[in-house]
Design brief:
The protein is α/β, with parallel strands linked by helices. It has 2 domains: about 150 residues, NAD(P)-binding Rossmann-like Domain (Rossmann fold); about 170 residues, Dihydrodipicolinate Reductase, domain 2 (2-Layer Sandwich), CATH 3.30.360. About 35% of the residues lie in helices and about 25% in strands. It has a 7-stranded mixed sheet with strand order 12-11-7-10-9-8-15, with helices on one face. A 6-stranded parallel sheet has the order 3-2-1-4-5-6, with helices on both faces. The protein has a two-stranded antiparallel ribbon with strand order 13-14. The radius of gyration is 20 Å and the shape is globular. The model has no long low-confidence stretch (mean pLDDT about 95). Bound molecules: (2R,3S,4s,5R,6S)-2,3,4,5,6-pentahydroxycyclohexanone.
């Protein structure tokens, strides 16, 4: 096995996640360094690259990818910009870690799939970071080992304290529920075939025009059911739980985090304020595993197929949101040989 030297990474997008990944590559993980930061806003690219030795700020992703010290690309720009960045990376056959979503809709995801197929090998790991969370990994192992028999049902909760301005109903699917879509496909190892969205009485605390909370129900290829309470303005913090119900038992993750304290007549632990804190270790592990695999010349983790399948379920779920709880089926193309 040959191991590449330190990986020079171009980080595309210097917003919240991009800047966090720059910090992570620079301060936390090993075997990689930030060689370039790209943002359409030059000042933001410069701010993120400031103080990092040998790191250059760019406004054009293709120019950064052409730099001689760039070996790999981490895409953390907004979803609609992903397709162009992915195709530019394929032009140079560069390894990519692409934040979710792969692309915002199935048609563009299929174009990416076709372009990667033309390369003849996988190049992309999609950033579904929950697959790297220690608790989700334990749950996955229990399900795979059939510790409680066959898993029949998943119950998920996905609560955010609040949403950024301009968050829409469709974004609750594309940005938030997309994680339960990937987790369902990964944990149960099969495709989602249909989706329903139900809306209880809307919270008066949610921003005007946002239907919050929602209940989402997935059916899978072999008839298993997955429900998700999605409540993105719950007000009290960030909570993600997942319970797998099997034939002879159940297992739940996500309830307890951190240190339990007893004081002032109360006992308990804290609630993470947001997803960056809750999934910090998962993000670290995801980027480290990507860098390690890339240096070995390998690609692992969620693929472009996973990104496409998630986009197809998102599209069906957004259609389901516009109905009174109707069942909307998910249509997938045949899985190409590269992803079997
Ligand atoms: C955000 O984009 C994420 O990816 C978080 O994991 C999710 O919990 C949040 O709802 C999204 O907005």
């Amino acid at each position: 096995m040959t191991l590449l030297g330190t990986l020079g990474v171009a980080v595309i997008g210097a917003g919240r996640m991009g800047a966090d990944h720059v910090r992570r590559i620079n301060d936390v993980i090993s075997g990689a360094r930030v060689a370039a930061v790209v943002d359409i806003d030059r000042a933001r690219a410069e701010a993120a690259s400031d103080g990092i030795e040998g790191c250059t700020a760019f406004t054009d992703p293709a120019a950064a990818m052409a730099a001689p010290d760039v070996d790999a690309v981490l895409i953390a720009s907004p979803g609609p910009a992903h397709e162009a960045a992915l195709l530019a990376a394929f032009e140079r056959d560069l390894p990519v870690l692409c934040e979710k979503p792969l692309t915002p809709d199935p048609a563009s995801a299929l174009r990416v799939l076709a372009a990667e197929a033309r390369l003849g090998h996988r190049r992309v790991q999609v950033g579904f970071m929950r697959r790297y969370d220690a608790d989700y990994l334990k749950l996955k192992r229990l399900i795979d080992e059939r510790a409680f028999g066959r898993t029949l049902i998943l119950h998920n909760k996905h609560r955010n304290a609040d949403t950024p301005p301009g968050f829409t109903d469709a974004m609750t699917i594309h940005d938030s529920a997309v994680h339960e879509i990937d987790v369902t496909r990964w944990l149960l190892d099969e495709e989602i075939t249909a989706v329903r969205v139900l809306r209880p009485a809307a919270s008066g605390e949610a921003p005007e025009g946002l239907n919050d909370p929602q209940l989402i129900l997935f059916e899978t290829a072999t008839g298993r059911l997955v429900d998700t309470e999605l409540f993105v303005n719950c007000g009290f913090g960030y909570q993600v739980t997942c319970e797998a119900v099997g034939e002879r038992g159940a297992a739940r993750i996500g309830d307890e985090q951190g240190v339990f304290t007893s004081a002032g007549g109360r006992w308990g632990t804290g609630i993470a304020p947001g997803f960056v804190e809750r999934f910090e270790d998962a993000y670290d592990r995801q980027v480290q595993r990507w860098a390690d695999a890339t240096r070995r010349g390998e690609v692992e983790g969620p693929s472009c197929w996973d990104g496409y399948a998630a986009a197809a379920v998102c599209e069906a779920a957004v259609r389901a949101q516009a109905t009174a709880g109707e069942r909307v089926t998910v249509d997938l193309v045949e899985r190409p040989a590269l992803y079997r």
